[in-house]
Structures are given as C-alpha cells and as structure tokens.
Amino acid sequence: MGTWFAQTNLNPGVQRREVFGWAMYDFANSGYTTVVLTAVFNAYFVGAVAGGATWATFAWTAALGASRALCMLTMPALGAYADVKAAKKRLLMLSTLACVLTTAGLGAVGRGDVALAVVLIVLSNLFYSYGESLTAAFLPELSRPDALGRVSGWGWSFGYFGGMLTLGLSLAYVLSAQRTGQTATQFVPVTMWITAVVYAAAALATFALLRERAQPQPGAGRVHGLAASLARLGRTWREARSYVDFVWLMVCGFFYQAGIAVVIALAAVYAAQVLGFKQTETMMLVFLVNIAAALGAFAFGYLQDRIGHKPALGATLIGWVVMTVLAYLATSAALFWVAAVIAGLCMGSSQSAGRAMVGVFAPPGRLAEFFGLWSFATSLASIVGPLTYGAVTWMTAGNHRLAIVSTGVFFVVGWLAIRPINVERGAAAAARSAA
C-alpha cells in the first residue's frame, strides 16, 4: 500500500490487514447514517409516515434524541465493562447484529406507522452508536501515537465509500422503481433492506480480521461485570481534574457534534423544505457530500499529524461556520451544493480529528471507558442539536433558515471551547495514569 499506508504508522505486531478489517467497520456502518439518517428515511418519515404534519420534524428529532439519551446513559458503563472483561469485540458483534435487524425492520414501516418507525429508529440508532464507540476504542491499540490522525482518517475516509456504495445501490433501485411508477411507500422499504445487507456483509471482514488485544483486568472474574464497570466509571468522573484537557475536549465535542448531528439528521429535510429538492436530488446531494467527506477525512488525517490535533480541529470548525452561513443564504440549488461540499469536507475531517484526540488523551487499559465518555458527550450533542433545530422550526411555523442559524452557533461555541486544550498536557496525564 506504499508510503500512504506505511507499516511504520502501526504499533508493533499490528498488520495492515488488521487495520483494513477495522476500517471495514466504518465502511459497514456508514450506510446506516447515509441512507437511514441523512438521505432517505428522515425525509420519508416527515413526508410520508407522518404525512407532512407540522410536528413531524420535531417528532423525528425527538426519536433521535431518545435514542442518544439511552446511549448517553449506558455507553460509559458499557465501555468500562468492555475494558474490565476485555469484551470490545464481543460487544461489537452483538451491537452490530442488533442494528442490522432493527434496520431491516424499518422496511416494514408504511404510511401512518409513526409509532413503529419511532421504536425502530430509537433502537437501530442506539445499537449503531454502541458499535461506533466500541470500534473507535480499537484505534490506540492499532496506531502509533504520532499517527493517530492519519490512521483514524483511513477509517473515516474508507467508511464514506461504504456509505456511497449503500446509497448508490439504493439510488439505482429508487430510479428503477420510479420508472415503473412505484411510490415512496413501495421503494423506501427496499432501501432499508439494502442498507441492512451491506452493513452485515461488510462487518464480517471486521470480525474476521480484528483482534481483541486487551486482557481481562484484575477482579474481572470475581466482581460482577456491571458493578466493576460502574465503579471504574465513577472513579473516572472523580479524577476528571487530572484529565482537564479531555474534559475540555468533551465540551468542545458536545457543541460541534451537536451541529454535525443536525446536518446528518436534517440536511435532506432542509433541502426538501427550503429548496424543493426531490428524493433523487437529495440522494445525489448526499452522494456528493460523501465523496467530499472521504477526501476530507483521508487528507486531513495527514495534515492533523503534521500541524497538530488542536489547530486541525479548529480549522474544521471554522469551515462549519462558513457552511452554515452559505446554507442560510442559499436561495438556489447552486449555492446549497457549494455549502454541501464544504459540509462534506468538514464532516469527515472533524469527526476523524475528534476521535484521534480522544485516542491521545485516553490512558491505555481504559480505552473503551474513555471512548464511552466521549460517546456520552456526543450522544448528548445528538439530542440537543436536532431538538434545537426541530424546536426552532416548530416555534417559527417552519422557518428552517432560522433553525440553520441556531446550528451555526453550536460550531462557534465549539471553536471557543477548543482554546483551553493543551494536547501535550493531556497526553502526559494519560501517560501518568498508565504508569
């Protein structure tokens, strides 16, 4: 794979095929966010399942919020349990199976099935979130500390190609179905089944190639796993002052991830409601966003390792602010497409950069626990961001432009919250904990 994927970027004993297997999980689960949350099912829920009711957008964001609330309450303890029991891979397999089954279940949702749709979205998004956090916890085991940015970028960029594959297959089916006169209630369910199949098939490579390097920790066999995990979680919170830079990263991550959650969950709704995009136009738009995101995540990972984690993440947040301004100003499709490309570039790079910074600040032996805490912050963000957007549209009789302005505020505050972070100090705190 040449110098771009050099063996020297990896920890001793880690082979490139194992990193490929790890990256295949990003490839597998990207189809879920791309098709279910961003391009197809969200607009289908608002327009068809809920019949375009004034409360439909808020109901969608509330379902996502409930899912992330469950993740926020359970993932930190689940991560600590995974560390104590050395169970990251086993839990990843179970969460993947559950997400695949509930995603396939969305294929049974038709017009008026609001309750069924909400239950399945809550569950599928919860299990997706578990999987994303657990797979991220493998990153510091695979990558050398000075290559976390680029290795994280490999996974994120490769993942977007999985999203494009799933979306491309879904788009091909939708176009074919529309030519035969089928309606959304007929072709959208099939896209859910396509997404579930790609997710399951691609994840098989992860489970075949990725190793569980962690070992059960002292007391794991004598103490009930949940009790041990909660005790470790409590200790982490009590020791928060020793990880001040990680705490600031969580604050920063909460705000910018709140904005990203809006883009993921509501970009298709915004395009349809403000600019009149049709289903196929929205899918093409998201396809373009995924291309830009793949390029951004890959290239920015190398830049991040060169210029530093903090400046790199800060630059992406400025890009997000520019995106929201352009989206607000867009009165035609052309300017909105420009905003979408910027969103794609920033999405891949900012999410990859955040994951890499957690890897810097997480003490060895507590990786899943710290990534579980990161999931706590991002889960809370995924509640607050979309609910804020939904509440603004509800209170302003559907003013999506004002709602996108509220999204820009999240990115501004996130940029301010990154200022106190000292990467060297945070890495030293992690090293002291390991010692």
- Helix count from the secondary structure assignment: 16
- Can you give the mean pLDDT? 85
What does the overall shape look like? globular
Quote the distance from N terminus to C terminus: 35 Å
* Proportion in β-strands: under 5%
| Name given to the CATH homologous superfamily | MFS general substrate transporter like domains
Question: Helix and strand layout, with pairings?
Answer:
Elements: H1 16-39, H2 41-49, H3 56-85, H4 88-105, H5 114-136, H6 139-142, H7 148-179, H8 184-209, H9 225-238, H10 244-275, H11 279-307, H12 309-329, H13 333-361, H14 367-395, H15 400-417, H16 423-434
Written overview of the protein:
The protein has helices at 16-39, 41-49, 56-85, 88-105, 114-136, 139-142, 148-179, 184-209, 225-238, 244-275, 279-307, 309-329, 333-361, 367-395, 400-417, 423-434. α4 (88-105) runs antiparallel to α8, α7 packs antiparallel against α13 and α12 packs antiparallel against α13 (333-361). It has 16 helices and no strands. The protein is mainly alpha-helical and 435 residues long.
What's the quick description here?
The protein has 435 residues and is an all-alpha fold. The protein is 80% helix and 0% strand. The chain contains 16 helices and no strands.
Relevant terms:
single chain, 435 residues, mainly alpha, Growth Hormone, Chain: A, 16 helices, 80% helix, globular
